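Field reference: sequence -> structure
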Amino acid sequence: MGSPEYQKEANTIVNTSENGLLPSFAKDSELTEKKRQQIVNAACKLFFRKGFHGTTIREIATAASMSMGQLYHYISSKDDVLFLIYRHMQTLWREHLAQCGIEDIHDPVERLREALRQTIAFMVKNRELLLFIYTETKYLDKRHLGAVLEMDNQEVVGFWRKILQGIETKEPIRGDIDLLANLVSYLMVFPPMRGWNMKNIPQEKITKGLIDFILMGLGFKV
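Structure field:
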């Protein structure tokens, strides 16, 4: 299991980048999050089957066992729902890393290697969710898109940036940390995004090849 501090960090994503983006009429924050998760679960099933544009707010309310009035206590539009789905994926990923004990690995390069391995496994397992988000995010309005991009910078790129900075305190890294953190973030979605063209390659081989590629690019022996 991961350290309590790391688990706490993973759990803070539920508040990241909202900044008044979502309606909040309910005073009980725990209940609000529970209801929003109920909406996310229902919406994902509909979106995966009917698509973002093919699904109505009323259908989401019905699938979530809520009236329209209840639904609008927690979201105000489908853009809100898509934002919540993106946030949900980030939370699942950070919880997965916390449970794998990434922060318990003392050697910084080995910590990076295991974080890469666990992230690739997570992305492959949640391929349908990932592909949906990458396909539909372009339909978000400017405000919601800005919040999603800021969340990505803080929670995804920021995670890899922190790991690379930890390595650099002990040994030099080839290249700009911020650029490299963005590259690693991008490469993590390679297996699910390009999986259609690698069906005959074992997943274990894809994972090792990608990790070796990243480590060699950073200047480390594999």
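Note: Residues 4-22+76-217 form a domain with the Tetracycline Repressor; domain 2 fold (CATH 1.10.357.10).
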